[in-house]
Each structure stands twice: as structure tokens, then as C-alpha cells.
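Re: that chain you flagged

S.,

Sorry for the slow reply, it's been a week of failed gels. I finally had a moment to sit down with the sequence you sent. For the record, here it is as I used it:
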Amino acid sequence: MNSRLFTRGLAAGALLALLGAVGAADAAAAGPDRSARRARQGFNLKAAVDVLISANRVSCNINNLGEICVAAAGSPVGGGGFWPKGTPDQYIFNSGLQLAGTIPADAGFEWAGDTVGAFFMDARGDQQQGDGVTLTYNSLDPNDVASWPQGAVIRDADIYNSVLLGRNTISQQDVWVRTWDGNASLLSGRTHPMGILVEERGLAWNFPSGNEDIIYFVYTFYNVSASDPAVYANIDPAIRDEVAAVGVDFANEASSKLGVTVPPGGYRIENLYAAFYMDPDVGSAGANYSTAILPFD
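Prediction finished late last night. Pasting the C-alpha cells below so you have them in one place:
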């Protein structure tokens, strides 16, 4: 099952915090050290790891590790969120999701009762746990448009107006990516992964008035702890097999790298909290100011 959270990103640095639940089935000092960012996994080699959202006055680079407004190409010191676009005015060094939840005490295997978490955005720099499942797709790139994934098609009537269903894009620039925390090599202090697949869509418009300074993100969370495809029966048939395959990968990761057999039916993740963490750098990066003070210029 999945839980959907909606937030918007403000160019001036007010990326909003999120809260939700999911069912079973100098500048270098300003932010994390990203010098060891991982290379992208297979899939469509014409797509990208990093994509720049720049359809309006916001400039925000995203990657397939779950980071938002992050410097391109893994710079450990450069920022990734600028406003207005084309100026040196950096408002965001980096941002992204941080998740936490609990596995029920009656889960029936050795992780029962655990508190689990995942840093898709890691401010410390040595515990980033997001890993790309797909490349990052950009509706302004003709190569991406020609190979637009099934998962990136607008399908969810609970989020989108019915007139938008079936469309590939809905804004002047759509970006789309899937990432997860299930790579059991990326523990960084955890004893095991959480088992969450995150689907992310970014949206940018120049209209109506005011939207030129806003970017939006829609997140869908999938609990991928189950390796039994039947658990994913409630997911849209067009993407069901893709999500179920990630569940198989999760079971294989737990077995091969951690020596743990996760029940085929997976487990519930209860009390899920999703925070949107941002490292703002308004003015001096070392001061870590988070907003502009317009009356004082």
C-alpha cells in the first residue's frame, strides 16, 4: 500500500515539513559531504542522475538519491537551490526526506518491534541511505519524453484532477524519479533498512501569478517489505509488477547481506513520520540564515 504526501518548495527557502503514515505491504561547513555519491544503477542510459528544475524563476537540482535542491555532479561544497534563477543568490544548500517508523511487535521475525528510519537527506554527510531505483526523468528533455516511464504517467485520482489522468506531464516542467532505502549496504548506523520505495514528482509553472517562484513535489510511499506479488494487488496494474519487483529485491538484500529472512507477506510500518529537512544558506553559508529579511535589503 502507499501513502501520499504533498508539499511545495518555496524558492526563498521555506520547504515545508511533512507528516504521514504508511500501511503494510564556509560553504563546506554548511552541509553534508557529498564527495562519495553513488553512481546510478542501470535502466535507461539516456536519462540522468541529476536534473535541473528551471522552468520558472527557481533553479533547483534534484538527483535519484532523494535529495532536492542539491548541487549537480555531487559537489560537496556547492549549493543547489537558487532564486531568482541565473543569480548567485543561493537559498538552499540541500534538502530532502527523512523517514522514521516502527515495525509491529507481532511481525513474526527478528526485526519485530524495531524503530526504523531512512535518511534520504543526510545533513551529517556519512549516513545518506537513499539509492536510485530509476533514473531522473525530465519533461524538457526530448530523450526522456520519448521513453517516459509507466510509473511517471498521471494515474492517481486521489491526488490529481480526473481531467489530468493518463497524461505524462501536467506542468511546464515535470520531473520524476523513484528511490528507496532498501540497499542493505547503506546502513550507516542502522541495523537494517526500512523497506520504503519513494516515488517523487516535481512540478513547475510560470502561471498564474506567484507560481513563478514556487516548485511543487508530490511523494508516494510504497511499503516494499513483501516479496509476495499478491500483496501489491491494490496497486494500479500498469505499475504493479514494477513495485512488486522492488519487494523481491528488498527480500534478496536482507537475505544476502544481512542473513535475515523477511516473511513473504512483509510487515506493516506503523507510526510513519516523514520530515522534509532543509539546510538553508541565505547570505553567508556559515551563518546558516534561513530566510531573507526584505526590509533590510
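What I noticed first: The radius of gyration is 19 Å.

Talk soon,
D.
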